[in-house]
Design a protein that fits this description.
Layout (H helix, E strand, L loop, with lengths): L1 H55 L7 H8 L5 E5 L2 E6 L3 H4 L2 H14 L3 E6 L2 E7 L3 H66 L6 H23 L7 E4 H13 L6 E6 L6 E4 L1 H18 L4 E9 L3 E8 L27 H12 L3 E8 L3 E9 L3
Parallel strand pairs: 6-8
Antiparallel strand pairs: 1-2, 1-4, 3-4, 5-7, 8-9, 9-11, 10-11
Length: 382
């Protein structure tokens, strides 16, 4: 518990530190922006003074410095007098020819910076409007770019953390499954021995022995299933119609008559690469979930369709249904709507179908209060 708490505290410290760093970078960027903006305004004041000196200069005056200042301006500038544009520099030639575009550009410059008042002659006042330099324009978008980079980095870290966590969970479940299979194996071997001992006793009813043997075979099947979790199962070319029917019939015989079972499949054999024990587990999981959704009373349809390329298995019930926003969540480990449940059945089913049998599984259709159809799609063996 203490270890978990420490990890949580460390995580929050890292998040808070990262947030502080981002705030400091943004504040620093804003400070640079203001400094550059002030420097540009100083340059524009110098430009205005140079303009005033050139306007008031006589023929013998030295105007080399003011002229150089005016020529070295590299940002768009407009000078107005009584609302009319009387001078401009660094304006796109295509805009200069259009008075409407010039007026629109002037309004844009007004929105960027406050004007500089120039009294180039007594009583003659002009206003200088200027835009931001390329450097300032680029600096505006720097915080946005920085935030995007941080967001992408955080997404990568989150996905890595999530993948690592899921991989750890998968290893844990696989280890638990193998250990369960190992633990069941010891008493199961003993039960097989006792069964053989009872068979030798003629006083024991034969039908009783048959039922005990069925349960032992069932336990062997369960052990075999658990032992395959976490390892690559051996796939065999099997008739999926026959394998599915066998699992269907087994569960059908073990539930009450309050559930109406129907099985529909092509009459011809359909050969698919599969592991029989794991496929049986898949069908049983889907059927048990369907029966649970109907609370043990309703109609369950299992339909197999072959289109020549894919074999589709649809398991349909008329139970409580699944909300659309949970169509994908139902396959996540730990997700369950039952009061008592681990939320592992459909997640294991998804793993068996997609990782081991290279198929696909999804909620094909569901409506709350009316029922659900879950579909499995397998490629047909050639």
């Amino acid at each position: 518990m203490q270890f978990t708490d420490r990890r949580a505290v460390t995580r929050w410290i890292i998040i808070a530190t990262s947030f502080l760093i981002v705030v400091l970078i943004l504040w620093n960027t804003y400070s640079f922006f203001q400094i550059f903006k002030e420097e540009e305004r100083v340059k524009m004041n110098q430009w205005a003074l140079a303009q005033k000196k050139m306007a008031a200069a006589d023929l013998d005056a030295d105007i080399e410095l003011p002229f150089e200042i005016i020529q070295n301006a590299h940002i768009p500038i407009m000078v107005t007098q009584q609302g009319k544009i009387v001078n401009h520099i660094n304006i796109d030639p295509s805009i200069e020819k259009d008075s409407l575009q010039m007026r629109a550009l002037l309004e844009n410059l007004k929105s960027q910076n406050d004007p500089i008042k120039m009294e180039y002659l007594p009583g003659k006042i002009q206003y200088l409007y200027y835009g931001d330099s390329d450097l300032l324009n680029k600096l505006k978008y720097y915080p946005v770019a920085l935030l995007l980079i941080i967001f992408l980095f955080a997404t990568v870290v989150y996905n890595f953390y999530r993948s690592t966590k899921m991989a750890t969970q998968n290893k844990l479940w696989a280890g638990m499954a193998k250990e369960t299979a190992h633990q069941i194996g010891t008493p199961l071997s003993s039960l097989i021995g006792w069964l053989e001992f009872l068979k030798a006793d003629s006083s024991v009813d034969e039908s009783t022995l048959e039922e005990i043997e069925k349960d032992i075979v069932r336990l062997q099947t369960i052990t075999d299933r658990f032992s395959k979790i976490g390892s690559e199962p051996i796939l065999e070319s099997r008739d999926i119609i026959e394998e599915t029917r066998a699992s269907f019939d087994y569960l059908k015989s073990r539930f009450s008559n309050q559930v109406e079972f129907t099985f529909t499949a092509p009459s011809e054999a359909v050969w698919v690469k599969m592991n029989p024990a794991l496929h049986s587990w898949t069908i049983e999981n889907l059927m048990k979930n369907a029966i649970d959704a109907m609370r043990g009373k309703g109609k369950l349809d299992l339909v197999l369709e072959n289109d020549g390329t894919n074999l589709k298995i649809n398991v349909t019930d008329n139970g409580k249904g699944i909300p659309k926003n949970q169509f994908k969540k139902v396959f996540e480990p730990g997700f369950t709507t039952k009061k008592r449940g681990w939320g592992l059945g459909l997640s294991l089913t998804k793993r068996i179908v997609e990782e081991y049998h290279k198929g696909r599984i999804r909620v094909l259709h569901s409506e709350v209060g009316k029922g659900t159809t879950i579909q499995i799609v397998y490629g047909v063996a050639s």
